[in-house]
Amino acid sequence: VEEKDWDSDLAKYASPQYFTNNLLSSVYFEEGSRHIPKNAIVIEISPHALLAPIVRKSLDPDTDIIALTNRSKSINNIQCLLEGIGKLYLNGYEPNVNAIYPTNEYPIPALVPSISHFLTWDFSVQTIRGLEMGSRKCWYKTFVLGVCSKPKYQHLLDYKIGPKFLIPAAGLISLVLDLFVSLNPAAKTVAIENFRTYECDMGVFLRGNCDVSVAITRVGGTFAISAEDMEDVWCTVNCKERILATGEIKLVAGKMKSNIPDWTTETLEGRLEFDACLKKLAFSSRGNQCVQQLSKHLEGFSADISSTSGRTFELVDSCLKLISIARSDDERTVVPYCIQSMVFNMEMIREYKQGQSVRVFYDPMDNEVTSSVILMKTIRTKDILLDKLEPSKEYTSGTSSYWTSMKTAKLDDIDINYIGLSSQASKDETIVDFSGTMNTWRNRVMGIVSYVKSK
């Protein structure tokens, strides 16, 4: 049917005339293909994928064509359907896969066997490859981080808490935000969701060089920041490709709405020196000049953040340090590693970079950061483990390949398979046996966690 007849009864209804016309008339691919934009994803629902070669010739080369069936007898069509759904996921869409499975009826009988032990991850497949998908399907930026990195990236290497170096979460946030805004210069409000950082070996960056990549999918805004080793004759550290941070970034329509709280009542502690609070938590004094003092209220904490170098990093980092001060105590230092939602007012950020200070508020009860520039919701923190407590020598006999303690534990690096209270535990010393697999290198480990009560 030609385009001028698309609204006719012949085109809209499955009548005998409709099927007769389909059988006898020509197919107007050229007219229809004019309405399909570049970089589109075309799903062929016709049987046997007969039209795929014709559609490829008619559409733009950047168009992705996904077939759900195949006429070849050597191909399993169920597998073809699931692969088509998988291609939609890789291109940023979220099809409702529950529609192809029967509905579970609850309660499930007690004797139904579990299939969880059959499900394993294929570590031979590098997961970041599914996100890269070539430069035409994602925005991409790479730079060198390490002993040969440019000065503008040095703040990512100088971040230190106690003796431990780490890549700051604020640095990773500013990397993806700056890249996204450079591609969308007219953006007024930008949101980052489900942001998460991952542990990495800082020795790779301090003694060698890595290629750091920031990839953002054009559809959906899913992003990943990864590091991959470079061939360096001076560095003997072997760094495989690893994920530093993941999340989603997108434009938000309209201006950011922020409810600035009216906190007037301060506690007896009143105003606190920002740098002194951070030194107490073993933070390095470098980069703490943006905030002079913070106020402790009955409802939470507030601080005025000023710009010293015109970077978004300082603003975000000061907000995260404010959270660390609010949540840490004399025995432990915590840092944010997972943030469910962040919203940025880009117009106000530009004013901040030009020298205007920003007042931020952190409410520990609601777990929210509020200001006229940035909003953060549902922030999760983890311990930065500084003390080097040795496990009790009494229990060092045995085949344990991983020793730790409650304060120096990095159990986030281990996929725990078993954990239980040891028979050697006592009233004054808690001992827990565990076994699992290291997330980084997939080595199987087992050991104990020992914690001695202080007297």
From TrEMBL:
Record keywords, A-Z: Fatty acid biosynthesis, Fatty acid metabolism, Lipid biosynthesis, Lipid metabolism, Multifunctional enzyme, NADP, Oxidoreductase, Phosphopantetheine
Record has Chloroplast as a keyword: no
InterPro entries: Ac_transferase_dom_sf, PKS_NRPS_Biosynth_Enz
Domain of life: Eukaryota
A GO molecular-function annotation: oxidoreductase activity
A GO biological-process term: fatty acid biosynthetic process
PANTHER family: FATTY ACID SYNTHASE
Name recorded for this polypeptide: Fatty acid synthase
Provenance organism: Cacopsylla melanoneura
Top-level taxonomy: Eukaryota, Metazoa, Ecdysozoa, Arthropoda, Hexapoda
